[in-house]
Every structure is written in structure tokens, then in C-alpha cells.
């Protein structure tokens, strides 16, 4: 095939998983300060299937579209002015978010400083599962909440992609960690560092815990999880609401209780990815990959993800 084309998963219209098709498209070329990366694996996130369905970040995209923001691969070419990376470097990133990055493809281009060298102790499959989820957890715990030793941190949806990484990061920061998840995930979450686990299907979490300094809310308005989180948060504590931001109902409840709130939308952050790679290589954080799909199985991967029963992450094997 021509060196100017590549395989990619594209969609020409929003809809169900069936709109994802594999074909050949033009290969991107790096501009000054950008790198061209040959993608070995691409992580899959809820924002991917929400965007595919016309929700999520769909309003910021143009069709036809190549989905995907999480990538791990090898630098193939560098644009003028790049000094931090060179051809042959193994890197991982969440480039361009929320603008389109085209991660479900054999090549991506993006500014060099949105990338970081991938953790040396893991392969591309695991590295591709990290960026969006790990950066979300990092930005919430470190940059937004400033979690410190001795605090109590509640992580909702703790067995998911962001959640299982947030549990480990909070523990690394010295916090006492409370995790909500189905009972079948409790033993695993305790291995990751959770001090207290709550089965949200059997017990309302606000009846099981309290005195929390920081809530990492990865559920939002579903079953009023965001508003109910105020009841377990101490006055002056913080609820970081990731999906959808701070709703009027959450803001009102928090205001009455003297609890702070913050929205969060993850951003590309090569410096943070370097720090996260250090945590992975030190053994402080490990990423769980539940299943790896071939690039041609992207639709199947989305169907699996939309069940909301994934333990950790799903990944596409792009290099195949």
C-alpha cells in the first residue's frame, strides 16, 4: 500500500456501533513542533462511544471522523523545532482532546509536548489504556483537589477505567480510600488500595460512610449520585463532578452544606503523563485491561463498553 495512506476506523455519520468501518485514509503529516507516531494500540473510553452516538464531544467534531484519543506507539518522524523526542522513542498520549485526535488509526500527529515516554515496565497495550483515564484521575486528585496524606477520598465507579486508577493514586498520596462498586469487584479494589468498599446495588453509600474530604464523582446525576455525595462530605470538603460538571442541584445542595464543588474536563498533559509513567514503573499504579480487540473489531469493542460492566479498560490492537 502507499506510504501516504493508513488503515483507520472511520464513521461518516453518528449512530450505533455499526457506523464504525475500517478503511484506508490519508496519512497525516507532522507540522512544525509536531511528531508523527506509528500507533501500536489505542485505548477505548466512554467518551468514544458517546461521541459516536452523537453525544459526548460530537459537537466539536467534523464528519467523516476517526475516533479515539488514547494512543501508545513509536515516534516515526519529528517536525521542525521538536527537541524533546526523536524517531524510535516509545511514547503514549491523549493528544488534542477534546478536538479530534484520530487514535483509531495506524498513525497520529500532535504537538510533541502532548506526548510522554511510555512507562518502560509495560507494553503498548497497557500504555494505551492509561492516558485519558489516568490524566482524569491525576487532574482530579492532584491538580484540583490537592489530596494529601490523612484525608478520606471517596471514589465512585471505582472499578472502571478512571476509578481503579484514582483508587491507586489516592492511596499513593496517603489518603484513606472509600470505593463504591459491585461486590464482585471489592476484593480486587482492596488489592489496589481501597480501605473501605461499598456495594451501591445493596446499600446507599450515604448510609455506609461519611466524613469524606474529597469525592471523585464519576457517575454524576444518575440516581442523584452527585447530590447524594454532599451528605458524606465534611463542611469545606470538595466534590469533583466529572461527567457533565456541576449541576444546579449539586451546586444548591453543596451550598447549603458548606461543601465545595468543581467540574473537571481532562486536558492533554505530557508532564503529568511523565509523572504517571513514574508511578507505573515504581509499582504504585497498575492499569487493568479487560480485553484487547483487533482494529476491525472496533464496533464489538464499543458494544462491550456500552454495557458499563468493564473492569478497567478496553484496548484496540492497531499494529496487529
TrEMBL record:
Residue span, Rhodanese domain: 140-197
E.C. no: 1.-.-.-
UniProt keyword annotation of Signal present: no
SUPFAM superfamilies in alphabetical order: GroES-like (SSF50129), NAD(P)-binding Rossmann-fold domains (SSF51735)
InterPro entries: ADH-like_N (IPR013154), ER (IPR020843), GroES-like_sf (IPR011032), NAD(P)-bd_dom_sf (IPR036291), Quin_OxRdtase/zeta-crystal_CS (IPR002364), Rhodanese-like_dom (IPR001763), YIM1/Zinc_Alcohol_DH_Fams (IPR050700)
Alphabetically ordered keywords of this record: Oxidoreductase
GO molecular function, one term: oxidoreductase activity
UniProt enzyme class: oxidoreductase
CDD domains xrefs: MDR_like_2
Top-rank taxon, per record: Bacteria
PANTHER family for this protein: ALCOHOL DEHYDROGENASE RELATED, RETICULON-4-INTERACTING PROTEIN 1, MITOCHONDRIAL
Name this protein carries in UniProt: NADP-dependent oxidoreductase
Organism of provenance: Streptomyces heliomycini
